[in-house]
Amino acid sequence: MKNTPVTIKDIARALNISISTVSRALRGMPEIHPDTRKAVTQLAEELDYQPNQLAKNLAKSRTRTIGVIVPNLSYYYFSAMLNSIEEAALQSGYSVLVCQTNESYLREITNIQNLLRSQVEGFIISLSRDTDNYEHVERLTRKNIPLVLFDRYAESINVSKVIVDNHAAAFKATEHLIENGCQRIGFLAGPAQLVLSNQRINGYRAALAKHGLSVGDQYVFNCDYTQENTIMQTLAMMSLQQPPDGVVIISDRMAYSAIYAMQQKGIRIPDDVAIVSFNNEPISAYFSPTLSSISQPIQEMGTETVRLLLREIEATDNTIPKETKVMETQLIVRGSSLRQRS
Question: 270 preceded by cis ω (within 30°)?
């Protein structure tokens, strides 16, 4: 039994006519005799012929495919964003090719090259932890290849972006700790070159300044997102002469490691140290203690990212203005930040 898809060659051979005649008949071209057109369409239906959409798209220089590059799909935030991006793309008739950098700058470059060879029509990218040179991304913009950055981005790259108000989110998290009695608040941040991390540090400092608390750098520790480094930096922070009684942590993923490190040292949460982090991963509601976290509108962010990209892909010229969409966040308060009042 033949399992391969039926092609126009099969129809042409069965009817003893040319491939070009079959093609024109299937497209309803008027120069084809009605009897021939009827015979072609009837046989195509009998054989369950399906047009090769990829070949048709390539003939028109279209693949209707989007390339998505993220740091790591094991991170809840990026896997959830991918779900939203893919759903929005599918609803608009596009498919998605996904690559992950595993936080590697060199792998990010390779991913872009591979996706270009796959003839994607545009890119959605969140930069890797190690990316501090943006030439490979700027090259896409110089070639007028549609591109949208989300979450992790570079301010110097003139493209559309979908982000959250990181300054306001960190301000909110820090002020919550202050209102719950914390006086010495630390910040476990991401790598120093990440715009996102620095915006959150600035929001944290602004909240401290508003309430007249110390804004010294001794309480800010940069981490590389790995469990080992997070544990090391947490222990260093808690070994300060006056350790913090509250900590803002840049992601839930890092918070789990930080809490583990503290608990191994007999530090009670939230009695000794209150904690707020970011991303509101589902497990945060079941972790012990339950984790206070900043929730981001991931579904809306994914939809907006695709909208901005398709706006550029489907434009008839390159004059579409770049747009930065800034989303609001919500603080979800749980047990890790609620201290007993004396």
Answer: yes
